[in-house]
Every structure is written in C-alpha cells, then in structure tokens.
Design goal:
This protein has two domains: 48 residues; 129 residues, Rieske [2Fe-2S] iron-sulphur domain (Rieske Iron-sulfur Protein, 3-layer Sandwich), CATH 2.102.10.10. It starts with a helix and ends in a 12-residue tail after the last strand. The chain is globular, with a radius of gyration of 29 Å. A four-stranded antiparallel beta sheet has the order 1-2-3-4, with no helix packed on it. The protein has a four-stranded antiparallel beta sheet with strand order 5-6-7-8, with no helix packed on it. The chain has one helix and ten strands, in the order H-E-E-E-E-E-E-E-E-E-E. Helices cover 22% and strands 20% of the residues. Strand 6 and strand 7 form a beta hairpin. By secondary structure, the chain is an alpha+beta fold. The structure holds FE2/S2 (inorganic) cluster. The site of FE2/S2 (inorganic) cluster has 11 residues, from loops. FE2/S2 (inorganic) cluster binds next to loops.
C-alpha cells in the first residue's frame, strides 16, 4: 500500500513538469501565432491602400494653389495659365507634405457647370475638387477629350470616373461618392483657396 502511494506520488510529480511544459508550449504557440498575425496585418496595411480614410486636410482660406507636378511644379497657378479643358494637380502653398490637401483643378466654360456643382465656389470657369479618389485613395487624373464637356476625372486604380462639370459626381466604377469640391477665388491673378472641402476627403471612415 505504502509502495503504491509512493508510486502514485512519483507518477504525479513526474507528470507535473510535463503539464507545465505543455502549458508553456501552448503559450509559445499562441504567442507565435499572435506575432505572425501582427506581421501579416502590418504587411497587408503596407500593400493594400488604406480603406479606413482618416485624411485630415490642413488647407485654409487664403492659401495659394501651387502646381504639384510638371514643369511649373512649386509655382503658383495663375488663372491665365489654364485654357478651357485644362486640368492640373495642385497643393496649397507650403502644405504639400499632407496628401489630404491634394486638389484637382479644372477649367471649363463658366456656363457649362451643372448641379450639384457649387457655382459660387467657382471663379473664371475654374473648379477645384479633392484629388483623392473616394474609393481607395489613389490620386485622380484628367482625361481630356476633344469636347471639354466630355472630359472626365478618372482614377486609374480601378477606373473610377467622375464628372467635373456636375460636382465630380461618380459616373462609373467603384467610388462610393463624389470628390468633395473646394471653393476657390482668383487673387491678383493667382488661384487661391476660399474655404474648406465640402466633405471628407478620400474613403470614408
Ligand atoms: S482607388 Fe480609385 S477607383 Fe479604386
């Protein structure tokens, strides 16, 4: 009997370390899988454009619009630089470090704009919208067609199409909402911001 009890004791003490080891191994596996998941999520964030939005523009009334690309990059955009049918990408002066501020400027005949364009936010036939696609944040481009009224703002990432003369409303592809308009004025010949965006820029939260 004594020897049986001693045997049981020996058996249970022999199993304790093995149980602890199993617990430790389980913990290790969980930690490892947690680490793998975290790395995977970080990788996905890197390769998939963020859908969560969260862009915070810092553009303010009075900011001059500056060429964001091309030969005149960094120079103020003069209204006379643009012909009807032209479009350029712009940043508010000194704020090009914030992607949320990027703006697409389009010049058309002043009487060619239709609702829901805010006509009081246009000057000299120049309208401005956020340059960030509302689908997955790519920068929108300009597709100039022989007829200005047929020209479109296009996002090449997934062929999102916006109508520049109708408040940048979506006319094709996956974008869920228009590009928000931003009011502009001409100050001493230079395109200047006259207020904030009509709504959130980029994909919604
Ligand atoms: S990111 Fe513009 S259409 Fe998808």
């Amino acid at each position: 009997m004594v020897s049986q009890k001693a045997d049981q004791k020996r058996h249970s003490t022999a199993q304790a370390p093995s149980g602890e080891r199993r617990g430790f191994l389980r913990w290790l596996l969980l930690a490892a899988s947690g680490g793998v998941m975290a790395s995977l999520l970080a990788l996905i964030k890197l390769i998939v454009p963020q859908k969560s939005g969260g862009y915070i523009p810092t553009v303010k009334s009075g900011d001059q619009l500056i060429y964001a690309e091309g030969g005149k990059k960094g120079k103020p955009i003069r209204v006379d630089d643009l012909q009807v049918g032209d479009s350029v990408l712009a940043y508010p002066g000194g704020k090009d470090g914030n992607y949320a501020n990027i703006i697409r400027v389009v010049r058309a005949e002043p009487d060619s704009f239709q609702p829901p364009t805010r006509k009081d936010w246009i000057e000299g036939g120049v309208v401005a919208y956020s340059g960030i696609c509302t689908h997955l944040s790519c920068t929108v481009s300009w597709e100039k067609r022989p007829q200005v009224t047929a020209s479109i703002i296009i996002c090449h990432c997934h062929t999102g199409l916006y109508d520049p003369l109708r408040g940048a409303k979506v006319i094709g592809g996956p974008p869920p909402r228009p590009l928000p308009q931003i009011p502009i004025k001409v100050d001493k010949g230079v395109l200047t911001v006259a207020g904030g965006f009509a709504g959130p820029v980029g994909p919604k939260l």
